[in-house]
Amino acid sequence: MTSPPLPAPPASLRELRPAVARECLRLESTLLRFGAARGQSLLLAVSGGGDSTALTVILALLAPRQDWRLHVCTVHHGLRAEADAECGQVQRLCAALHIPYHLRRAPVRELARAAGTGLEETARKARYALLEEVRQQTGCRWLLTGHQREDLCEDQLMRLLRGTGWPALGGMSDCDPERHLLRPLLHLSGKKLRQWLRDWGVPWSEDSSNDDPSFLRNRLRHTVLPLLEKENPAYGDSASRLRQLAQLDAAYWESTLDAALALTPWQQTEESITLPRALLRAHPAAVRLRLYLRALRCLSRRHGGQARAERLLALDAAWQEGRGNTRFQFPGGLVAVLRGGAVTFGEDGGA
Amino acid sequence: MTSPPLPAPPASLRELRPAVARECLRLESTLLRFGAARGQSLLLAVSGGGDSTALTVILALLAPRQDWRLHVCTVHHGLRAEADAECGQVQRLCAALHIPYHLRRAPVRELARAAGTGLEETARKARYALLEEVRQQTGCRWLLTGHQREDLCEDQLMRLLRGTGWPALGGMSDCDPERHLLRPLLHLSGKKLRQWLRDWGVPWSEDSSNDDPSFLRNRLRHTVLPLLEKENPAYGDSASRLRQLAQLDAAYWESTLDAALALTPWQQTEESITLPRALLRAHPAAVRLRLYLRALRCLSRRHGGQARAERLLALDAAWQEGRGNTRFQFPGGLVAVLRGGAVTFGEDGGA
Known about the structure:
The structure is a homodimer.
Chain A: H1 18-34, E1 41-45, H2 50-66, E2 69-76, H3 83-97, E3 101-105, H4 108-115, H5 119-137, E4 142-144, H6 149-162, E5 175-176, E6 181-182, H7 190-200, H8 216-231, H9 235-263, E7 267-268, E8 272-275, H10 277-281, H11 285-303, H12 309-320, E9 326-330, E10 334-339, E11 342-347
Parallel strand pairs in A: 1-2, 1-4, 2-3, 4-6
Antiparallel strand pairs in A: 5-6, 7-8, 8-11, 9-10, 10-11
Helix pairs in contact in A: 2-3, 2-7, 4-5, 6-8, 6-9
């Protein structure tokens, strides 16, 4: 990996090939549509890999047009020897582009040991916590990440493997207002982004852990995904559209559940949520399963864990049979208890 | 392949291991729930492969309990040298089980040449046409096929590759009343069915074309599917559950669209369907896309072809922008025309 002391990325959209400039302008309108309004401050999460490096260069080209104030943050996980050099490279790029640079360190090994969690999961949690901290410190409205189409494909396959239901099966969203998170590159292929960087003479660092076959994500990237792309070279487009359809359905289900709960409200206390018999009887299985899921999600903000479709189907089958005093365990120490046609979700022991 | 002159399959559920007998009884209640009522005649589509051979033996065990009258039909495609021997083997099994046997021949090569279609697609169409004919001739209420869990997994992957939306992504259904079609083995693995046949000493013929890598289905079976099963040994269960969730959602969308169309009905002539502005404005994108799809399906019963999510999304984007006098082509020679906020579907040239 060559890293010249000061990269010279393009200074204006006019320096790009017309087709690339058009893609950048499309990205600009996507960001505006998501709510990244003119004059806002935006924080970019940049590891120094091809995706986030491309994100940085593209946003630097768009920022003057929309008066966006950019910040860049790298989280150093202390896991790989090359990380220092990678941070240095991001810092040089930011200097060349006049973007304020923020370096944060997460002692991932120590954190993982203390919490008894895996390195990958610990790194992800620590990274997002630090990025959120920097977002607030810098007064940024949004955090932008470099997730692209291959990441989306992997995410969908992992969800398919786990037996995730719909619309969650569609994969990560390009706009998550609750987490102030935007993924504007999600419809673009990483190969294309790297080609742009090569054309522009901007160096990047390929993270060696992306090839580590001990991570499921990497195994899918290097084995299953190439087979699917061989069968359908436009598979990435299919995956993008599946995500798009999933987001439309997610919005539909949000408002449909809101409406259902407004008509026959649930009973919520600090520790439990009860879906009354009248509410459940008013709706078909497709709605009931999503009501269970919403109740579990409300409670699991404190408890963590993710309900599997299998358990939700078993719960609903028991409800349909009219079983009473039956308990179903869910992740995060939660249970569902059937009683008189109502279902109460709560902590195990509490409900 | 050994094929003894008269196989001696188990004569009663009592001869089976208890766990296997329980699975057969579960299959019996599934069939009853689908509407295969006591005393009905059922036609089994049997190629002589492991799946349909197991279907035959299991149904022969259940038939006396429910007074089901069984018929078996094999469609000989005239494509493989072994097909004559395979038909003979099915015939011997039926003789041993006292099930009336029907052999039909489809001149697939000639049909494909005449219609200019692929062998696989031609064989499938000809097979189902002949099976439907035999179903009516024998007065059978249902046609049962031997599709099992691996078939379902392959089907889901092919749909994922093609960019199929939800709930169609969930794959083939286990109960299709419109086609009088039941797939009672869809939740069982082919490996398990073959193990049962071995235990019972019932021979079957493995269709050599199942290994032919010129078919997408076989490539997925031999490359992608084993990788997914390696990552999650219970992947087949996940696929089954996804199908189950999809069927619940399909039922939901059927009745939701019915209700939407009952409030603001569409205009339908012999050649076209118009979704009026008031109807489309009353619903979010998730519903509008499915209304387009339903209109196209109504018309394509005569015209064939399947709309891709990409085109439906493009149509809806144009509708949202309020574009007028815009045409969108769809498979089967169909078009959608936007005019004054309404969308009219019809034959190209006709609408």
